[in-house]
């Protein structure tokens, strides 16, 4: 493989932002017909590197070669013209128009007088879609497709040009297993055609399944390339974060306190029905299920964002109704929401102000917000959660995902809740911060909090929970204790295979 | 290299651009025409900026909260006409006319705040509609007539627009006092923090237990209160008003607020910056007059300023002056 000339080669790429050397002389090469993983913690420089490759950022130093021809990428169109295609993590499709129009946007086939040649457009598109074995056709409106299928449209778009290199940025983030395997087939096809593929992902099992080599970035610098067949998770993790991690379930059973929260027959319209469970002080209750199973909606109902249509909620044995987030907060329920950037943080605000936001009305001296009280809360939780931020004045949007998440957790811990609900605690967070957050959740339980963790990642749920509630289509299917749960039984429960409700 | 130099200049401009531009402008004009920095002229500009300035203080709250208020111009006409009319009404007189006018103007603000805060309608549409509706309301009230105070020598009503204390005109004192008060409210109190949070990310604010609708509602009440104050100054200064006295002011107010650096996307800006924005706008208009340009040119200039300020705001966020993608 190495005697071939690379499909894509980067040499000494340097990109700086004010105060940060985001890329510090990164070099690596992708061979034609190779699936090359690019790994690194959040903030390691992967996204910046891809933006340089896509012509969105101009590097200060360094060169890009495509087929060993030096190329300057001045913009996304130029990247495309040079055969570099991106499948983005966040989709960039126009929902109101058809699949075909999205795929050929900007270069629709024409007839005389500039009229669109619909017949050719649909024929070409369907030919591509056939290769992808998808269930929709060229005329389908993109907005009617599932996220997974929308991703397939993005992939189809990449197939319309004679691609030299295709970059997949966290492509499986929202895919089911069946959809993943179709995606992997597509990647295998591309590889067979001699396309160089860069595959960005945090998911180890995928990396080992489909990649040939792995390059690792850390702190904006290239740390080396490994042959996938000759390495293991431990080596990669150490390379990414400089130490090794243990993600297996290790915690001993803890002493449980009284029941902090009990829910009986809670329903909210079509979203979830007849949910009953309880969580004790000192316990982590995991909620596992597919996206749309109703887990987040239960959390939002408990937090007063949705009105239940039936059922009862008891806090410390006393029945309560929760009418708004303010009400929930006052009753001792906190929610770390699923989407950090949309729901958790005001990105343009500084770290301290974000952290103290729910209680700013209480941190006063006379009519004014007390700077001292705020800073002392910030300092306390910065130390306790080991938040890495230059100062409390730093704008939260400038922190890494892991530190942002810690700010949100700190925000809710500082409210001293009885029940802490954490929805997708580590989504989009690098491996190192992930395990820190897992340890933190365990630690919180040990300190007597009642913790509810909602997650779509099975290892996470297994790792942190004392008991696990499995949900399927708005229903609680089964409840497992940590001792009895197995991966298989959990998968069956969340797929609706096990018919018996808890 | 040129690129990095441009970038660092851009960075400074983005942070302190308004002050830098202001100083350059003042120095340039002063060199060209020394009359420009004559104390009389400077005081004249500040005094004539007071009405616009008071309105801009309120709109700053609305804009930081992530919304717009285009109804302030016609609301000013309304408050001026109403206070003058009630002043002439024997049942009211000045002492009752003023609180009655404030109450009515606050009602208009409450309508804006209810529709935008609680019903979550688009603020551009709501306040644009209110601009027109209030204009109609004003004309109905006045029957299309201008309002005048008949017996100007027998009322103390003129004090708000014409009086002075310690040698400083009352309108300027009101502007400074209100700016200080609202500046502290915005920067130092929990309410101010909530305005920034709601404008910066309304969803996250809701998830943090901040009553988003109420905060937005109050920003419109503050805006209406400022308009009522400005209307009082206006009516008092001229002891009479036309139905259209505030026409077009909404854009000038917005220009001053944006010029001060409040982002139209919400979540940023300060009262101090808005005051600077107001002064810049005032001095630019004054400078143009001193330069012998027609008064009407300032309408075009206001537009150019809005465009430049919005462009700078967006360009700073994108990190470059022009970008095909956000």
Topology readout:
The complex is a heterodimer of chains A (502) and B (326).
Chain A: E1 8-17, E2 20-30, E3 35-39, H1 46-53, E4 61-66, E5 69-71, H2 76-81, E6 84-87, H3 99-103, H4 118-132, H5 147-159, E7 165-169, H6 177-192, E8 196-200, H7 204-210, E9 213-218, E10 221-227, H8 233-241, E11 259-268, E12 272-280, E13 284-288, H9 295-302, E14 310-315, E15 318-320, H10 325-330, E16 333-336, H11 340-344, H12 351-356, E17 364-365, E18 368-369, H13 371-385, H14 401-413, E19 419-423, H15 431-446, E20 450-455, H16 458-464, E21 467-472, E22 475-481, H17 487-494
Parallel strand pairs in A: 3-8, 3-9, 6-7, 7-8, 13-20, 13-21, 16-19, 19-20
Antiparallel strand pairs in A: 1-2, 1-4, 4-5, 9-10, 11-12, 11-14, 14-15, 17-18, 21-22
Helix pairs in contact in A: 4-5, 13-14
Chain B: H1 2-32, H2 39-64, H3 72-88, H4 93-118, H5 123-142, E1 147-148, H6 159-162, E2 164-165, E3 168-169, H7 170-188, H8 190-200, H9 202-207, H10 212-238, E4 240-241, H11 249-259, H12 271-290, H13 297-318
Antiparallel strand pairs in B: 1-4, 2-3
Helix pairs in contact in B: 1-12, 2-7, 2-8, 2-10, 2-11, 2-12, 3-4, 3-5, 3-10, 4-5, 4-10, 7-8, 8-10, 11-12, 11-13
